[in-house]
Amino acid sequence: MFIHVLGSAAGGGFPQWNCNCANCDGFRKGTLNAKARTQSSIAVSEDGEHWILFNASPDIRAQLAAFDAMQPARALRDTGIDAIVLMDSQVDHTTGLLSLREGLPMDVWCTEQVHEDLSGGFPLFTMLKHWNGGLNWQRIEASEQVPFSVPCAPSIELTAIPLLSNAPPYSPRRDNPHP
């Protein structure tokens, strides 16, 4: 199995564009020995050629450009991304889907709650259906007892572990957290 960290920073990246904390300020002034980081996303592959993208951050273009395996150049239009798994429906994990629109259709694996949020309050699924067939929703269960796999990496078993956290502001589940 291959795992490539595309980004490891929180929303806004590091340094965050509007933050003057000691770390962000120190980085900008050159007094902090650190590296700039893009927002959180990883890519996983069984064979090093066909990749599952976990989350699609707003930084997706820079992340893909920095990882050669994502542009294998096998055809005029090509990508190493064979599937996308969304961990939640937060803006920081989903707005990169808009940048990926030229590569659609694409299979997107997520829970029913995430799909609802991204079809209603923040309608990415609805908007992107206008590009080459859009996003093909593949339902997953948030359950430690129900693992799933993605066709491009059938030997990798994935588990969507339910977490207790607050939904984004556009979700009907906002301020009513449940797994």
The DSSP helix count reads: 6
Shape by Cα distribution: globular
Report on the biggest sheet: 6 strands, mixed
The pLDDT mean sits at 93
Pattern of helices and strands: EHEEHEHHEHHEEE
**What ranges have pLDDT less than 50 throughout 5 or more consecutive residues?**
none
Work out the helicity level.
Answer: 10-25%
Arrangement of strands in the largest sheet: 1-2-3-4-5-6
Please explain how this structure is put together:
The chain is globular and about 45 Å long. Strand 3, helix 2 (60-65) and strand 4 form a beta-alpha-beta unit. The strands form two sheets. The chain has a six-stranded mixed sheet. The chain is an alpha/beta fold and 179 residues long. The model has no long low-confidence stretch (mean pLDDT 93). It contains six helices and eight strands.
Short characterization:
This protein is of the alpha/beta class. Helices cover 18% and strands 22% of the residues. A six-stranded mixed sheet has the order 1-2-3-4-5-6. Strands 7-8 form a two-stranded antiparallel sheet.
Task: Produce the secondary structure layout.
Elements: E1 2-7, H1 22-29, E2 41-45, E3 51-54, H2 60-65, E4 81-85, H3 91-94, H4 96-99, E5 106-110, H5 112-117, H6 124-128, E6 135-139, E7 148-150, E8 153-158
Parallel strand pairs: 3-4, 4-5, 5-6
Antiparallel strand pairs: 1-2, 2-3, 7-8
